[in-house]
Amino acid sequence: MVRAFLAIDLPQELKKELFSLGKTISYESLKLKWVEEENLHLTIRFFGNISENLVEKIYKKCKEVCKEIDPFELRLSSAGYFPFKGTPRVIWIGIEALSNNLFKLNDLLKKALKPLKLKENGEKFHPHITLLRVKEKTDPSALKSFFEELKKEAEKLEGKSFFVREIIIFKSELSPAGPKYTPLKIIPLKEK
């Protein structure tokens, strides 16, 4: 069994800039867990624990879909959090698609993977890059102040764009030091 997910990796320079947001804001009193720089990505689909055989089947379906999608550009938008109501548990940077290709990719993958009967999370696709997780119940006003400050810092990165030329099936290994993501299959988008 392998814990796997499908994602778009980010350029190294962009990862560095996103990760540096954590160095610009004070948050000593809050229990936050920043995503490691090398782990920043845009998740398309989380599979959970699946067999190696199923990874192969997913890979084949993804290859077929990717032949139909031209490379595309994405742009960073503003910071936000989940859940939308109540205490934030995940703080992220939004992603804006400059064409319909990201949503087309997501829709085609959903249809192509349906016969594999993978578990569905049922939520609407909301493209984002997770920056950090709130680890425990924490002072709501301190968290609100932190988020406002982060949002202001993140505005400096708004509009930064990057090209997507491939999607990746990653293996996720959990450890006390944090997750380690290893690319299992790299699937290029349509050749021009």
TrEMBL record:
<dbReference type="InterPro" id="IPR014051">
    <property type="entry name" value="Phosphoesterase_HXTX"/>
</dbReference>
<dbReference type="InterPro" id="IPR004175">
    <property type="entry name" value="RNA_CPDase"/>
</dbReference>
<keyword id="KW-0378">Hydrolase</keyword>
<feature type="active site" description="Proton donor">
    <location>
        <position position="41"/>
    </location>
</feature>
<comment type="similarity">
    <text>Belongs to the 2H phosphoesterase superfamily. ThpR family.</text>
</comment>
<feature type="short sequence motif" description="HXTX 2">
    <location>
        <begin position="128"/>
        <end position="131"/>
    </location>
</feature>
<dbReference type="InterPro" id="IPR009097">
    <property type="entry name" value="Cyclic_Pdiesterase"/>
</dbReference>
<dbReference type="Pfam" id="PF02834">
    <property type="entry name" value="LigT_PEase"/>
</dbReference>
<feature type="short sequence motif" description="HXTX 1">
    <location>
        <begin position="41"/>
        <end position="44"/>
    </location>
</feature>
<comment type="function">
    <text>Hydrolyzes RNA 2',3'-cyclic phosphodiester to an RNA 2'-phosphomonoester.</text>
</comment>
<dbReference type="GO" id="GO:0004113">
    <property type="term" value="F:2',3'-cyclic-nucleotide 3'-phosphodiesterase activity"/>
</dbReference>
<feature type="domain" description="Phosphoesterase HXTX">
    <location>
        <begin position="8"/>
        <end position="92"/>
    </location>
</feature>
<feature type="domain" description="Phosphoesterase HXTX">
    <location>
        <begin position="96"/>
        <end position="181"/>
    </location>
</feature>
<protein>
    <recommendedName>
        <fullName>RNA 2',3'-cyclic phosphodiesterase</fullName>
        <ecNumber>3.1.4.58</ecNumber>
    </recommendedName>
</protein>
<feature type="active site" description="Proton acceptor">
    <location>
        <position position="128"/>
    </location>
</feature>
<dbReference type="GO" id="GO:0008664">
    <property type="term" value="F:RNA 2',3'-cyclic 3'-phosphodiesterase activity"/>
</dbReference>
